[in-house]
TrEMBL record:
PANTHER family, A to Z: BLL4998 PROTEIN (PTHR36215:SF1)
Protein name in the entry: Arc/MetJ-type ribon-helix-helix transcriptional regulator
Pfam families: RHH_8
Coiled coil (residue ranges): none
Organism: Actinomycetospora corticicola
SUPFAM superfamilies hit by this protein: Ribbon-helix-helix
InterPro entries assigned: RHH_8, Ribbon_hlx_hlx
Biological process terms in GO annotation: regulation of DNA-templated transcription
Length: 130
């Protein structure tokens, strides 16, 4: 998996649950703890798939990856427009986007997943990030 396709998270588990996972790994049901956790998450997401689909449709979220270049935002600025970024997945702004251009063109940011932008841009957009 590529760097842009994953996000590292930390999960705290009770020792008994961790022991159960280790036992399943030792018995060959899963190759690693990570394999078990990813499988468990995918199973839960699949079980809740219809509810997730309805929520994504209702909230008009872009599903997947949405990237904005400096040129994209400059074009919005030139037209006097602002956008509301709403993404379930990954939203990213190019590293060369200056904070003033981001503030002038991005009305709000709602990302369920990961939002990647320079520290300066994130700081400038701070109050607009939901």
């Amino acid at each position: 998996m590529g760097e842009d396709k994953t996000e590292k998270i930390t999960v705290n588990l009770g020792l008994v649950d961790l022991g159960h996972i280790d036992l399943l790994v030792q018995e060959g049901f899963y190759t690693t703890r990570t394999d078990f956790i990813r499988t468990a998450i995918r199973n839960q997401l699949s079980a809740n798939g219809p509810a997730l689909d309805r929520t994504v449709a209702r909230r008009t979220l872009v599903l997947g990856t949405q990237h904005f270049s400096r040129a994209d935002l400059q074009a919005l600025h030139d037209r006097g427009e602002q956008i509301h970024i709403r993404v379930l997945g990954l939203a990213s702004l190019a590293e060369d986007v200056p904070p003033d251009l981001a503030v002038a063109t991005i009305a709000s940011v709602e990302v369920l997943g990961a939002f990647r932008a320079s520290r300066a841009v994130k700081a400038a957009l701070g109050p607009r990030i939901v």
